[in-house]
Amino acid sequence: MVSIKNAVSEKMVGKTVQVRGWVYRTRSSGGIAFVVMRDSTGIAQVTVKKGSVPDEDFVSATDNGIESSAIVEGTVAEDKRAPGGYEIRASRFILVGKAEPFPITEYQSTELLLDLRHLWIRSREQTAIMRIKDSLLRGARNWFHENDYTEVTPPIITGVAAEDSTSLFQIKYFDRIAFLSQSAQFYLESLIFSCDKVWALTPSFRAEKSRTPRHLAEFWHLEMEAAWLTNEENMQVQEQMVTAMLHNVADECPDELAMFKRDPAALKKIVPPFDRMPYGEAMQYLQGKGFDMSWGDDLGAVEERELTKDRTIPMFVVNYPKELKPFYMKENPDDPRTYKNSDLLAPEGFGEIIGGSERETDNELILERLREKGEPLENYSWYLDLRRYGSVPHSGFGLGTERIVTWICGLDHIRDAIPFPRTVSRVFP
Ligand code: NSS
């Protein structure tokens, strides 16, 4: 038993193999059937000749239907006409699960493909996206492990707004209300006092009403927090970790990347340090490009596209005005209008993939900001405790996993970076 990718290769020519997979397409004429089979690793042409297989196997090879599952035994041979240049000449073709007529044909509307997402995720493009995501995440996980970070498991059900109380999902929690987590940050901040340097991959939820191609209601959030870390060191962690993710996917997934015209060698050229542009400079740059903006305006998708469209390497925008960011960030002593924070923007126009900052450790300042926002202070008493008992300078960040996948795969919409997207209009399937 071998994977399809390993079966149809130079080194297997003349060898007998068994592969298991699903019918991608079938064509037959007279006494010969060409069945293209797929598994998670790729596709291969299987040639089934009448007389070379038991009679019932030949019937199975000619009368199956797209997405039927089958086990094939045969000999690998070179054949210029086969996709990839090799084929399997079958000695057995055993149908395992005959498929009913498959509801997805060549040209389908986006809506139908979303309705049939549970079947559409079998497509080669979707499969490649999932493998790229898996590889990116492994790159990050390996980097954290090599750098002595502890992976921790924060809660998803919570009583506080970690980012923005207007985009909270409320749930019935026994006889009171609770929320779905927007970010594990506050829990990671608590955990640095025991583990020093921590990270977590959790789902985060944002009830954002706006329908944009870069927002999901549920996304996978890769977050880290470390004691003693300054904002500058926080950015160094980000550029090293992102580089490790990119280099890992370049090594592990050259074929999948090629499907999205992404050159692994170009990803390997991305190395730290990434440029750091202060918010004020970004504003001037945009004004110079004709944007009607002034200090204090936020950078949205359009502005981030302008800043990054001609770049090939991610860049940081640093020190945003306080009014644009949450209460927990540390004031920038060099310009108290701003915070010691950064957003990491992906190049080629893609924009924000990470938000990070050094954290405020002064409880008076935190209380003042919470009062200004009208937040219920009692919910944050435990968070303030962290500053009362052995407070340390610390920093951290959160990376949107689907954002980095969207960039690497050059996707038009973030919903294709997750198998079952949750958006304003969709919780099914
Ligand atoms: O809101 S963030 O900018 N920052 C935080 O949540 C911090 N509390 C993280 C931390 O410091 N531990 O979100 C971080 C990233 C952001 O840069 C995006 O890449 C991603 O999370 N993000 C999203 N991805 C997809 N859909 C939505 N709605 C979304 N919101 C944020």
Q: Quick recap of the structure?
A:
The chain is α+β, with helices and mostly antiparallel strands and 429 residues long. Helices cover 31% and strands 26% of the residues. It folds into two domains: 94 residues, Beta Barrel (OB fold (Dihydrolipoamide Acetyltransferase, E2P)); 301 residues, Bira Bifunctional Protein, Domain 2 (BirA Bifunctional Protein, domain 2), CATH 3.30.930.
How much of the sequence lies in strands comes to: 25-35%
Strand arrangement within the widest β-sheet reads: 6-10-11-16-15-14-13-12
The N- and C-terminal alpha carbons lie at a distance of: 33 Å
**CATH architecture designation of the largest domain:** 2-Layer Sandwich
Largest sheet: number of strands, sense, barrel closure? 8 strands, mixed
Main structural class: alpha+beta
Total number of beta strands = 16
- CATH topology of the largest domain, by name, is BirA Bifunctional Protein, domain 2
**CATH homologous superfamily placement of the largest domain:** Bira Bifunctional Protein, Domain 2
Overall tally of structural domains: 2
Shape: elongated
- Which CATH first-tier class of the largest domain would you pick? Alpha Beta
Q: What is the chain-wise order of helices and strands?
A: HEEEHEEHHHEEEEHEEHHHEHHEEEHHEH
